[in-house]
Design brief:
mainly beta; Methylamine Dehydrogenase, Chain H; 6-stranded antiparallel β-sheet; 3 helices; 32 strands; 9% helix; globular
Length: 420
């Protein structure tokens, strides 16, 4: 093979190349300075994801052992610039375990998600909102004496929960209490007189400190408490007592019930307007939404909303109420100023829990009998998407931090969806 001869670049060509390169750098710098830092795709949503599959040890208040499985995709940001009703549900994770029977699920918006495991497990499960991993299982066994109340060691049955506005605390209602001095397990088929005849005793609301994930307050309420809500001004905690047919209003400052209001039937869901002026209570054993003044702590009106209303949420401006109608399997939209039903949409068999996106454009509801979660447009209740989930879905929450939707199924599953 003949030897390769090294090519020598003419000096004139080298000078031209250097000049062109310098000119290109100058142009690039000039363009960046002209555009400025705010023009570098700052309006585009940024999402960073990493996929993890983990097997976590199950925990409970008993000494038994089990295995729980979590398959998830971690999320770090939301599509804040895109209205929620333009996004769709995409499953990114699922946690399953024989140690959970989640009745409800609640996102703090600060990185935590709580699931209440009812009478079947007597625990609260706390998850990482970004990756779906179990952080802690909180037992509901307490000694009443330690909280300045008469009695001994009892165990709760968490139903629903609500965060304080600063997310430092999480309140849970207990369907029944178990232990010395406590009555029989509550029932869903009850009246105040039948519950008293059965020997039911008042139940308790617990307050959990979110930094330590421990119970730090216990407050006695009525018979078979279901829903709990905290006023945006952090003045009151409201609790619906299913078998008492009452609403307990707790002062956050004194940790005491300051008013107990009679309800016209079995009360369930609660929503409070953004200004903490009025609370709205869904009467599941009827067809009305009860309006309560938080200034006077009195009922100030009732609005017909349709049969068997279970869960109620409000639009961000407090103008509209959205409710699930359980037996009809519908979602209804009500104008609170006029009391008129704006529209009704059928979503499935036994419509249970309902949440609204942070921007107020989308609703997400679960149908217990259909094993589905449905996304609806808040503007007209048009169905945008219906997705199958594990059977017996009953709880749902929207996480403002990630834009994820979490669905809890009694069958031992928590399914996590991104909105994309």
């Amino acid at each position: 093979m003949p030897p390769r001869h090294k090519r020598v670049r003419p000096a004139s060509l080298h000078i031209v190349s250097v000049f062109i390169g310098a000119l290109a750098v100058l142009i690039a710098v000039t363009v960046l300075v002209a555009l400025g830092p705010d023009s570098r795709a700052s309006d585009a949503p940024t999402t960073v994801t990493s996929t993890t599959v983990t097997t976590l040890p199950g925990t409970s208040s008993t000494t038994s052992t089990s295995t729980s499985t979590s398959t998830s995709t971690s999320t770090t940001t939301t599509n804040a610039s895109t209205p929620a009703d333009k996004l769709r549900l995409v499953q990114i994770g699922q946690y399953s375990s024989a140690e959970i029977t989640p009745k409800s699920v609640d996102a703090s918006g600060t990185g935590l998600v709580f699931a209440q495991n009812m009478v079947y497990r007597h625990t609260v499960s706390v998850f990482n909102a970004r990756n779906g991993a179990l952080i802690k299982t909180i037992p509901t066994t307490i000694n009443l004496h330690n909280f300045g109340l008469p009695g001994g060691t009892i165990e709760g049955a968490p139903v629903e929960g609500a965060f304080s506005p600063d997310k430092q605390y999480f309140y849970i209602s207990n369907y029944s209490m178990f232990g010395p001095g406590q009555g029989p397990e509550g029932k869903d088929t009850c009246t105040p007189s039948s519950a008293r005849a059965a020997g039911d005793t008042p139940d308790y609301v617990y307050r959990i400190k979110t930094t330590s994930l421990s119970i730090d307050q216990v407050i006695q309420v009525g018979l078979v408490p279901k829903y709990v809500a905290v006023s945006p001004d952090d003045k009151y905690v409201l609790v619906t007592n299913w078998c008492s047919w009452t609403l307990s209003i707790i002062s956050v400052a004194t940790h005491r019930v300051v008013a107990t209001l009679p309800m016209p039937g079995t009360p369930r869901g609660i929503a409070i307007d953004p200004n903490s002026r009025f609370a709205y209570v869904a009467i599941m054993g009827g067809d009305v939404l009860v309006r309560v003044s938080l200034a006077t702590l009195r009922e100030v009106g009732q609005t017909y909303v349709g049969s068997n209303p279970r869960t109620v949420v409000l639009s961000p401006n407090g103008q509209f109420a959205y409710l699930t109608l359980n037996i009809p399997g519908d979602v209804t939209k009500v104008d609170l100023a006029t009391g008129h039903i704006v529209t009704v949409q059928h979503i499935g068999v036994l419509a249970r829990s309902l949440v609204i996106s942070s921007d107020g454009t989308a609703l997400y509801a679960v149908s217990y009998g259909s094993s589905t979660v449905t996304e609806l447009a808040a503007s007209n209740l048009a169905v945008l998407q219906t997705v199958q989930v594990p059977h017996d879905p009953i709880g749902i929450t929207y996480d403002p931090l990630t834009g994820d939707v979490w669905v809890s199924s009694y069958s031992g599953f928590i399914t996590r969806f991104a909105t994309r």
